[in-house]
User: What shape does this take?
Amino acid sequence: MTERQKYLFDLQGFVVVEDVLTRDECDLAIEKIKTRMKPMEKTPDGYDSNGTWHAASGLLETGEPFIKLIDHPRLLEVLQEIINPMLRLEGAYSFVRFKGCPPFEMHGGHRGGRVNFRYEVHNGQIYTGLTVISFNLQDVGEEDGGFACIPGSHKSDFSVPAADRKELFAVGGPLVRTIPAPRGAAVIFTETLAHGAATWQRDDAPRYGLFYKYNDRSAIYHDQGHRRPGQAAFDLMTDAQKCFFNTAWQAFGPGNRHTNDVPDFGGSS
Ligand SMILES: O=C(O)CCC(=O)C(=O)O
Assistant: This one.
């Protein structure tokens, strides 16, 4: 992680890493998402999607470019610095959202949520928990909608007062910014940050969002059931990549192993 990235991540709660995916890889990812996306009846906030929200899962089973993103070196150098050298990948999925879709309402926005929702810095070392990478498979301008957040809110010690939430957390309100980034970029943000997604404004194409959620290898936030990759995906991974799907433990795990850097799933152990 460069000094610049560390400064920006600490200041804002997110950092943009450009040129992670090539144009061809973005096109390939979109083509594969199209084959797997299914309409969602409700948005994550419970609104009728009216065909404007789709979800795609099982992406790792389709191979590249999804597999290489599990441990992309330019992303790991950030994630390992802000979470822990040993990481878990809790989920990899896509939301496809069309023009006029209901927003993904703002969530997160104060630290103190223990292991998953934390943000601290001691002696120059950042400590955060659940962290998301949002890959831009298209160029996204500020006016297009998409990923939105309140920069700096990951350091807030207070929750937004209930009476002020509607106004202060409104997408398009006084505090919330949409974050532009070019095609191929990765927006890395801590879930402790107040964040969500603004209504997609473009009619030339839906927003093909691609999200990878990382945590400390000794912590789990999401139920892993349907998020666990299938054997077809493990067959495509290196041993180092399989370790991102080990269950959460730090010491005395399977076979009395003291470390969690040997694959448990789909590997030889
Ligand atoms: O759709 C987005 O860009 C935001 C994703 C999000 O809010 C999340 O992953 O928690």
Notes: The two ends are 32 Å apart (CA to CA). The helical segments are 3-12, 23-36, 66-69, 73-82, 162-168, 231-234, 239-242. Residues 95, 104, 132, 134, 146-147, 195-197, 209, 211 surround 2-oxoglutaric acid (CB under 6 Å).
